[in-house]
Amino acid sequence: PEDDPASDPETDPDPGYTVEVVIEWPDDPYTYDGTEKEPEPEVKLVIKDPTGTVVEEKPLVKDEDYTLDYDNNTDAGEDTDPDAPQVVVVGDGTNITGTTPPHKFTIEPAVIKVKADNKTKQEGQANPELTYTETQGAVHGETAVYTGVHLWPE
Fold it and tell me: Which pTM value belongs to this model?
């Protein structure tokens, strides 16, 4: 309304129009490499007329209109895990207020390839210790450790 001092005809939609914040997340998963993963969404205001037709889309700007707050975003984890990598959008109070529910994403484990070292055994002797050489996938000087089922970074 014109007599409402909080109303701004430049930014307030006409009666019956709606304004929504739309957040579109990039596809994941990411692959573990020892660094933080920081998916950046496209965030925009969408104005719709009373019939639901989009009449305007206004892109919002990171670090001006909103910030992103990441948690658990370095180590491998599934988006279904309780401590999954996640990010929230935090509004600056101008175009967006509040904080979104966490968007969880997946960081897949790195693929580590190894080559078994050549060993021999003579009849009646104990089995030799199985050893290997990493051929691909070691991350930032990490060493793989064989647990009998999986190789894990150490």
Answer: 0.68
Report pLDDT digits (tens) over 3-13.
444 444 455 55
Phi, psi of 113 (to 5 degrees): -105, 140
HEC letters along the chain: CCCCCCCCCCCCCCCCCEEEEEEECCCCCEECCCCCCCCCCEEEEEEECCCCCEEEEEECCECCCEEEEEECCCCCECCCCCCCCEEEEEECCCCCCCECCCEECCEECCCCEEEECCCCCCCCCCCCCCCEEEEECCCCCCCEEECCCCEEEC
Q: What residues does 48 pair with on adjacent strands?
A: 18, 54
- Distance set, CA 5 to CA 2, 11, 47, 92, 109 (Å): 8, 13, 22, 22, 55
pLDDT in tens, 48-74: 999 999 999 999 999 999 999 999 999
CA distance 92 to 70: 16
Rounded CA gap, 62 and 43, in Å? Answer: 8
Q: C-alpha angle with apex 59: 54 to 62, nearest 5 degrees?
A: 150
pLDDT greater than 70 at residue 146: no
